[in-house]
Specification:
With about 130 residues, the protein is an all-alpha fold. The chain has one domain. It is about 70% helix and about 0% strand. The protein contains six helices and no strands. Belongs to the PMEI family. This is Pectinesterase inhibitor domain-containing protein. Keywords: Signal. One of its GO terms (molecular function) is enzyme inhibitor activity.
Length: about 130
Amino acid sequence: MAIVLISTLLLLISLSSDHWFCSSSYVEDACCVTRYQDLCIRSLSSFSRTAKSSPSKWPRAGVSVTLSESKNTTQFLVKMLQDREFSGPETNRNRIALSDCVECFREAVDELHRSLALLMSLLDGGPDQVSN
């Protein structure tokens, strides 16, 4: 979930008028305010050319990367649940916990889809206000 934090911070950076630089690389500069800078740089480096020409695309890139990774994690956890070695009475408690984890990730994926749609709407000249 660190990437959610990354995308939020990138949104704040891209919207601020006073932008500071902590490196010579645009991606490194965008990631310098995050807690997990190496992860941010690795995750967003493929978006650097596009986002450099339009900094407002950084938030969309961050949410897109987070969404993709969340989907991958959900698929991995579902495969674990289906694994035959992960069955039996002694693992029932673990199986229930893993099922809860899968449910949380599925909800996170749904929320990220909504966030991405909202970001795209806002960045493409959509509504001026965001309401809950």
